[in-house]
Amino acid sequence: MFNFLSSFPTIILTFISGVLIDLFDRRKMLSIIAFFSIFPPLILGILTQFKLITFWQVTFLAFLSGCLSAIDTPLRQVFISEIVPMSFLTKALSFQTLSFNTARILGPFFAGLIISYGNLYQCFYINALSFIPFFIFLTFFVKTLKQREIKKIEKKEIKRSYKEVYEFLKREKKILNVIFSVANFTIFGAAAMILLPIIVHKIYGKGGKEFAFLFSVLGLGAIFGASSVIFRKPISDQIEHLFKTTIILSLSLLGLNLTKNWYFTLIFCFIIGFSFANFFPVANSYLQENTPNHLRGRIISLFTLAFLGMYPIGSLIAGFLTNKIGLHATLFLYITFLFFLNIYLLGFKFKPSKP
User: Fold this and answer.
1) Would you say residue 355 lies in a domain?
2) pTM score, two decimals?
3) Fewer CB within 10 Å, N- or C-terminus of the chain?
4) Which residues form the signal peptide (predicted)?
5) Which domain holds residue 331?
6) Averaged pLDDT of the chain
C-alpha cells in the first residue's frame, strides 16, 4: 500500500505536469515546488518527535511527496536545458545522475550515524532543511539563458496540447522509439533489481548487511558510469550509445543470473549500475535536444513516466513471476525482453540519420 501510494502520482500526474511545465515559467514553478517540498519531511519530523505518527499519516505524506515529485522530476530535467547550452546537456544530466547516486550512498550512512547518536526525527528535520538552500539559490541567483524564447501555451488550449504532442510523436517516430526503449529498459532492466534481496538470501544465504553492500556497489557503478559520460568526449551517436548500453546491461544481468560466486555478483552489479548511468541521461539528452522548447515539458514528462512510472510495474511483475516460475526463469525472461525489444527499437526500427 505504501509503495503504491508513493508511486501512484508518478503514473497519473506526470503527463499532466508536462503541460504545466510548458504553460508556466519554469524557474518560478521549480522554486514553488522546492518550497512546498520542505513541508512533508518537516511534518513527519514533528509527528515523529512527539510520538504522534501513524501508518496513515506516513502514507499520506508519502502520497503528497509523490505528487510533488511527479512535477519536480520532469521539471528539473527540462530546466537544466534552460541554464546550460545544448552542447553540454548530456554532461549536465550526467552530473545530476552523479550527485543523485552519491547521495544515495552517503545518505543512508549519515542517517545511520544520526539515528545511532541522536534521534530518528532529526533525519527528517535535516531533510526539510536541505531544500532551503536550493530554494534560495534557485529564486535569487539562477538565471536562464536569455537567448531562448519560450513559446507559451494559452490556458484555453490545454486540451489541444495533448493533441499537439500526439501529432509530434506521430511525425517524429525516433522520439517515440526512444521513449519506448526507456520504458523497456526500466521494466525489464532497472526493475529487475527488486530481485537482488532474493539473490542475496536464496543463493548466498546472506542477509541485510550483504544486500546493503551490494546496493552500494550498484550505486558506485552508477557513479563511475556518470563520470565516464561527463569526462569523455561528446557522444557523437547517442542512439548507438544506447544500443551498446542495452547489450552491456543484458550481458551483465545474464552473468548475474548464472553466477554463484559472490565476487562475480559484485562485479556484475557494478557493471549494471554503470549501464544505468550511461543509458538514462543520454536518452534524456537525446529527447531534449530533438524536441522544440515549447513541447519539451510534455515529452520529458513522458520520459519520466517511462523511467520512474514503469519501475513499480516492472517490480510488481518480477515479484509475481518469481513466485510462479522461480528466480532464474524470471531473470532470463526479463533479459530476453530487454535485449530483443531494445535491439528492435534502437537497431532495426530506429534508423539514425547519417552525418
Assistant:
1) no
2) 0.87
3) C
4) none
5) 2-147+157-348
6) 88
Residue 64 Cα to chain centre, angstroms: 18
- Contact 232/281 with Cβ under 8 angstroms? no
Task: Specify if 297 maps to a domain.
Answer: yes
Q: Tell me the C-alpha distance between 253 and 269, whole Å.
A: 8
Q: What is residue 248's predicted lDDT score, i.e. its pLDDT?
A: 97
In degrees rounded to 5, what are phi and psi of residue 293?
Answer: -60, -35
DSSP state of 14: H
CA distance 324 to 326: 6
Backbone φ/ψ region at 350: left (φ over 0), alpha (ψ -120 to 50), beta: beta
Confidence of residue 351 (pLDDT cuts 50, 70, 90): low
The single-letter DSSP state of residue 354 is P
Name residues whose C-beta falls within 8 Å of residue 236's C-beta, 6 or more positions apart in sequence: 355
Q: What is the pLDDT of residues 63-78, one digit of tens each?
A: 899 889 889 999 999 9
* Residue 118: all three cell numbers together: 541522536
Q: How far apart are CA 6 and CA 308, in angstroms?
A: 11
Query: Residues 40, 127, 90, CA angle at the centre, nearest 5°?
Result: 100
Considering the domain boundaries, does residue 193 fall inside one?
yes
Tally of domains within the chain: 1
Residue 330 lies in a domain: yes
What would the grid cell of residue 315 be? 517490480
Contact 298, 23 (CB under 8 A): no
The CATH code of the domain that includes 344 is 1.20.1250.20
To the nearest 10°, the Cα dihedral for 19, 22, 27, 33? Answer: 0
Please state, as a whole number, how many other Cβ atoms lie within 10 Å of the Cβ of residue 155: 7
Phi, psi at residue 104, to the nearest 5°?
A: -65, -30
Among 1-15, 88-102, 130-144, the range with the most confident prediction by mean pLDDT is 88-102
The answer to whether the CB of 326 falls within 8 A of the CB of 28 is no
d(CA 159, CA 166): 12
Q: Compute the CA torsion angle 310, 269, 74, 41 (nearest 10 deg).
A: 100
| CA–CA distance, 92 with 157 (Å, rounded to integer) | 32
Q: Compute the distance between CA of residue 333 and CA of residue 209 in angstroms, rounded to an integer.
A: 28
